[in-house]
Design brief:
Number of domains: 3
CATH class of the largest domain: Alpha Beta
Strand content: 15-25%
Shape: elongated
Number of helices: 11
Structural class: alpha/beta
Number of strands: 10
Order of helices and strands: HHHHEHHEHHEHEHEHEEEEE
Strand order of the largest sheet: 3-2-1-4-5
Helix content: 40-55%
Distance between the termini: 93 Å
CATH superfamily of the largest domain: 5'-nuclease
Radius of gyration: 33 Å
Largest sheet: 5 strands, parallel
């Protein structure tokens, strides 16, 4: 709702600016019979100047400096094509009941074509390269796109070591509504939730203390959405042209469906784990029984779960296992293995059986 009111205020500013100069400019007209022309010129100047101001304000707010040449070129083409089209339609009789010298029709077509050219160029500018004379715009770097952190990514905590290792160098943004949600979790009556929320606040404090991390609390106002904080986060990501970091699998998929770049920290952690191929052997401690009869479950040092066939009898022991297969799930990588019986020591052969 706030965004709609903002655009309404911008449109009202453009209209009022045009109407003010529409009344002021005719008072400066040296010829009374040319007043309609001066009115049209006044409205065109007022509305055009207000449009440029609004466009510059939007570009500065969203840091779209590369849009400046698009705006300038669109307005120049509109000023060239618009009056010509308007005069042509008046002189050939396509538009009637208007004074050919009034200037209203050329002014209308000037604004119309300036808008149309600006929109067309902005949508196709990736296929062309142009710049203002003596002005060179810095190339936009994809790695500097800001990263919006959701509650799950903050509580997860793995974003902190990623930033310390300089693997993540982009600025981090924590929306105000995400910070409030994290504070509510930290104040929960449930002990487990309270501990998770406090851990998330400690992670944010650790990021703030790191001079190599650019962390900012974003105060952008986002209207309430039916989907709650997750939906507001995606709306904010579109407004800021940012990507979202999360460990929430559903939010990750929802962001992809809406065209928002999403970073699943689970996928990042899986990609950084050392590769283990089927056939390799590792030493594993069987910690608990598996879901199926006879299975045992253990974990590698990086946290990867390994399901060992016929490993239930080996719970509590460290045994060599051979990797049979791997599979990727939404929670990470899952390995299946089988127990490899230890070979008898060649220097101490087993004693022969007695008769």
């Amino acid at each position: 709702m706030d965004l709609m009111l903002l655009w309404f205020a911008r449109a009202a500013f453009i209209a009022v600016s045009g109407l003010i100069l529409m009344g002021v400019v005719p008072t400066l007209a040296p010829h009374a019979d040319k007043i309609p022309i001066y009115r049209a010129i006044g409205f065109e100047i007022g509305a055009g100047a207000a449009f440029v101001i609004v466009a510059l304000e939007w570009m500065l707010t969203h840091r779209k400096a590369s849009f400046v040449p698009t705006l300038v070129l669109g307005m120049l083409l509109g000023c060239l094509v618009g009056p010509a089209i308007g005069k042509l339609l008046l002189f050939n009789g396509t538009i009637r009941d208007l004074d050919a010298d009034s200037g209203i029709v050329p002014s209308f077509f000037t604004l119309l074509f300036a808008f149309l050219f600006t929109m067309v160029i902005s949508q196709t500018r990736s296929a062309f390269r142009f710049s203002l004379p003596f002005v060179e715009f810095r190339k936009e770097e994809r790695g500097q796109r800001p990263i919006l952190l959701d509650t799950s990514a903050i509580i997860d905590g793995r974003i902190a070591p990623l930033c310390e290792s300089r693997l993540v160098d982009a600025p981090l943004l924590v929306p105000r509504f995400i910070l409030l949600e994290l504070q509510q979790v930290a104040d929960s009556s449930d002990r487990l939730k309270r501990n998770r929320g406090r851990h998330g606040l400690e992670v944010l404090h650790k990021l703030q203390q790191n001079p190599a991390v650019r962390l900012k609390i974003d105060e952008t106002s986002v209207p309430d959405e039916p989907g709650g904080a997750d939906a507001k986060l995606l709306v904010l990501a579109k407004m800021l042209d940012a990507c979202v970091a999360t460990v929430d699998f559903n939010l990750h998929n929802l962001a992809r469906l809406q065209g928002v770049v999403s970073i699943n920290l689970q996928d990042v952690a899986s990609a950084l784990r050392p590769s283990i191929l089927p056939g390799e052997q590792v030493t594993l401690e069987i910690l608990r029984p598996g879901d199926n009869p006879g299975q045992g479950v253990g974990f590698l040092e990086d946290g990867t779960m390994v399901v060992v066939e016929d490993g239930r009898a080996l719970i509590g022991k460290k045994v060599p296992v051979a990797i049979v297969s791997t599979t990727q799930t939404h929670a990470g990588r899952l390995l299946f293995a089988r127990h490899v019986p230890e070979k008898p020591d060649a220097h101490h052969p087993a004693a022969p059986a007695r008769a």
